[in-house]
Structure to design on (399 residues):
């Protein structure tokens, strides 16, 4: 689960981490009122969307010459103007794709006199089974380019969660950032605070870009992104309450209500599979046969009829779907339960696209009988290769 910048900063502030003063806003009036509470005379107006690259982004409605989603405002009138241009318009960044994201929230912060910018992030390194703290002296909007062109400027420090954060980790962070004196001590302390927040909140990723050194010698978090392990949210109702469903794909939001692992893709063959590995293999074999999957959807090992029905409806709600491939290996999952869910959903939504089903495993014959006696134009397949060939042929024939 992702959250907005202002929400992430509020969480970090609880751990004593320095952030510039700021106020969230949903309207132009709230943006101006928030700026009035700040010292000024320089303000920063920041679009709040779940995507990076906002500063270099462009608004679809404002033309190529318009400023991006992070703007410096030198007066309250500038804040009003910038807020009016941002709210309700679509910001396109390198991470949103061409569709962009509509800006519904703003964050108005106090301006900062910046002496230097750094980069610091934390994530779970699955290869080592440790938390990786990644730091660089090259903070700012182009950290991806730094990683590509000059990877030697990026340092990775791994922390064993069984041991926890140790003083030498803090010293390593400060050394990598080439900080001395009091700034060295601040960096070591900040690294420990960030690690504590990361572990306490079950974060999947915490990125600060930039971490800035101010002209009066302070380290401040100027921008941050946080995401969380969705499987651990039951431990953090306060974090779960920060979820902004307007930033998520509606079909993915609906899938989450039924505990379905669903991700929308750009293809035209809808997939319903049980098991992540089998789902990946199914998507691969669709592509091998010349078409592309429209989604990743894992219904899990013990889905109910209702869950399968919901999954089927979600697939069919995607207008890009021209055909559906169901691939089920019934271990814990029973093939007759899958078949009943497929039939119920297909009848309810008036199935209008080709459907190929491959069943194997527990109660497979009962499942096949249910499909065969449903009165629906369902094509049965003997194996995965056969299923992929049939759904591609069916879609091409229907085109």
């Amino acid at each position: 689960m992702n959250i907005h910048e202002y929400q992430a900063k509020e969480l970090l502030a609880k751990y004593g981490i320095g952030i510039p003063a700021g106020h969230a806003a949903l309207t132009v009036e709230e943006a101006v009122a928030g700026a009035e509470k700040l010292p000024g005379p320089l303000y920063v107006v920041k679009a709040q969307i779940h995507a990076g690259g906002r500063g270099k982004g462009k608004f679809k409605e404002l033309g190529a010459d318009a400023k991006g989603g992070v703007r410096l405002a030198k007066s309250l009138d500038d804040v009003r103007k910038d807020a009016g241009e941002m709210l309700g318009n679509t910001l396109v960044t390198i991470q949103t794709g061409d569709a962009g994201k509509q800006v519904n929230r703003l964050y108005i912060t106090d301006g900062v006199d910046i002496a230097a910018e750094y980069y610091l992030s934390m994530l779970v390194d699955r290869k080592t089974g440790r938390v990786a703290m990644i730091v660089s002296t090259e903070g700012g909007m182009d950290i991806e380019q730094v990683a590509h062109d000059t990877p030697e400027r990026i340092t990775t420090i791994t922390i064993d969660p069984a041991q926890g954060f140790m003083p030498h980790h803090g010293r390593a962070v400060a050394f990598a950032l080439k900080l001395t004196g009091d700034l060295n001590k601040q960096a070591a302390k900040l690294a420990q605070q960030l690690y504590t927040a990361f572990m306490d909140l079950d974060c999947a990723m915490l990125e600060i870009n930039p971490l800035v050194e101010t002209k009066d010698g302070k380290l401040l978090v100027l921008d941050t992104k946080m995401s969380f392990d969705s499987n651990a949210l039951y431990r953090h109702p306060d974090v779960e309450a920060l979820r902004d469903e307007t930033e998520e794909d509606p079909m993915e939001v609906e899938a989450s209500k039924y505990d379905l692992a669903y991700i929308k893709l750009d293809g035209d063959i809808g997939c319903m599979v049980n098991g992540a590995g089998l789902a990946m293999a199914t998507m691969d074999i669709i592509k091998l046969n010349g078409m592309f999957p429209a989604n990743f959807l894992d219904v899990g090992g013990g889905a109910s009829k209702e869950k399968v029905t919901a999954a089927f409806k979600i697939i069919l709600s995607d207008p890009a779907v021209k055909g559906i491939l169901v691939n089920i290996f019934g271990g814990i999952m029973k093939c007759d339960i899958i078949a009943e869910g497929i039939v119920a959903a297909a009848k309810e939504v008036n199935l209008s696209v080709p459907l190929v089903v491959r069943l194997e495993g527990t109660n497979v014959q009962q499942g096949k009988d249910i499909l065969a006696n449903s009165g629906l134009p369902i094509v049965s397949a003997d194996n995965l290769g056969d299923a992929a060939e049939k759904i591609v042929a069916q879609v091409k024939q229907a085109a």
Q: What stands out?
A: The domain at 21-110 is CATH 3.30.1490.20 (Dna Ligase; domain 1). The mean pLDDT is 91. The first helix runs from residue 5 to 13.
